[in-house]
């Protein structure tokens, strides 16, 4: 899913690069499904930059975009790390602009 969607296809991520990134130690990956079809996923670190929770990847299949899937995944992240997120003092974004 990652390598076929923006921005990863523009950045020319290969299957091997995507799998390696998602299989890094301490990365937790959670997905949303419609039946048995993966709609999207979030990859997270409980201790990222400066030991605060970090979203490594947020990916929603193009077919399921604009349906609230990304919002559900972000809400999961906020709930998962609620005690730390409430005290967070920084928001660091790394985004690709088309």
Q: How would you describe the overall organization of this protein?
A:
The protein is α+β, with helices and mostly antiparallel strands and about 100 residues long. The chain has helices spanning about 15-20, 70-80, 80-85, and strands at about 25-35, 35-45, 55-60. Helix content is about 25%, strand content about 25%. A three-stranded antiparallel sheet has the order 1-2-3, covered by helices on one side. The longest helix has 12 residues, at about 70-80. The radius of gyration is 14 Å and the shape is globular. The model has no long low-confidence stretch (mean pLDDT about 85).
Q: Tell me about the biggest sheet?
A: 3 strands, antiparallel
Shape: globular
Spatial gap, N to C terminus = 18 Å
Please tally the helical runs, counting DSSP H or I stretches of 4 or more residues: 3
- Uncertain segments of ≥5 residues (pLDDT<50)? none
Return Rg in Å: 14 Å
Total strands: 3
Helix/sheet category: alpha+beta
Q: Give the integer mean of the pLDDT values.
A: 83
Strand order of the largest sheet: 1-2-3
Order of secondary-structure elements: HEEEHH
User: Can you give the helix content as a percent range?
Assistant: 10-25%
Strand content: 15-25%
